[in-house]
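Dear support,

I submitted the protein below through the web form. The confirmation email said the job was done, but the results page showed an empty box. After a refresh the structure appeared. I'm attaching both so you can tell me whether what I see now is the final result or a partial one.
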Amino acid sequence: MFNRTLIISVFVVASCGLAYELIIAALASYLLGDSILQFSTIIGGYLFAMGIGAHLTRYIKDEDALTRFIDIELLVGLIGGVCALLLFILFGLSSAPFRVIVYSLVFIIGTIVGMEIPLVMRVMNQYKTDFKELVSKVLTFDYMGALAVSLLFPLVLAPKLGMARSALLFGILNTLVAIFTCHVFREQLPKYKMLMIKGNIVLVALLTAFFFANDLTEKAEQHYFGDPIVYQYNSPYQRLVLTKYKDDTRLFINGNLQFSSMDEARYHEALVLPAMENVPKAEKVLILGGGDGLATREVLKYPDVKSIVLVDLDPKMTELFKTSAQLTILNDNALNNDKVTIVNEDAAKWLERQTEQYDVIIIDLPDPSNFSLGKLYSVPMYRLVKQHLTPNGVMVVQSTSPYFAPHAFGSINKTLQAADLQTLPYHAYVPSFGEWGYILANRDGNFMIPESYQVNTRYLDKETTAQMFKFPLDMSVRTDLEANHLNTQILVKYFEQDWRKATP
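What the results page shows now:
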């Protein structure tokens, strides 16, 4: 019975230990960006801290090993359980010390988690478990627990419960392990009653936090975003937040503003209309990204368009902008138009399987803030897109800010050229973002700067269009930059460096 209890404990604590690591890494990626850097440093720091924790167990006496194991389970349950909730609240209050807080939590939790398995092995050894059996059982159930949580976390827990409640759930599991172990070994524990009191106090605290977690994170996000939050959702791919204040609706993905309804027409007209005007009577249009349907709305203004394929990774995004009464007004119900086919899939993988060509291809993907997005701005990706352009077709890429991120903007332009495309960069002023950049690309370099438009516009006319294609001296397109290849992903580095300088 004793060994069985400890083996079950190993399975649970291994699951919880990995869960805290994944949750903190995912949260840091959401809130700080650069997912590869955050995951690498957090996992590395966490494992280093576990090594320190394992070393510290040598100073615990054998007769105290069981009691200390129960204490550690309660401690890691409490700290690990509230870690995500604490990070949400602190990020909402002030982002200045946030990075230090994240890595401090990683070190504390990692150190405590690192003490668990060595103490379990010592307790099992006290009960005369054969050494070979001890090692094989402990490590087997340790790895099985890690596998279980690595599957459950991204597929079930994060989308259904969210980060804060997922962490609290694992904290509750750690606490239940402590209480159950305490009960089973009550005859061997001189401080049994005190341990049970502490265990129940921690359990009640975590259950209370679990019940109120969504309210607390919503208030923290409310402070961060400023405007009232009307919708929030954790999909398997990203965190979506919609805010609304008076007539201004805003969409945030992973904390980054995607559009404001006050000025999104400037962004989307600048993105779509110059490309459409460069292909008279365009009939087939492909949109990569743009799950909000706002770029689709602009394309549908052209009566000659017969079909639009929109490829966006997140089905929750397109579903939201197809069904919300408020949002369908914003995009003119574009995603429910009979001409529109929606594909929820990775854009690169989808393109690899297709042979169809399009007159206009609009790339409205999120900024290349991490490597998973950076691959969609790479030379191989643009070569793949080029294969799907008709001989006289035109593509356009949203290309971040040429003013705040000149290296990133210049690298995207260089990347398109490295894919054997001719380019024409331009920019538009969008109050929510500042100066924003776009790049037209085609095979022959024959571009037409529109002097008028076939469709109604709210922003663009002859004068504003002419200004878009002129770059002032402090925003000239840099040519001394590297193209973005998959094996280097230099664009992500440019992007991170540019925006770090631009953001106080």
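Response: this is the final, complete result; the empty box was a page-load delay. The mean pLDDT is 87.
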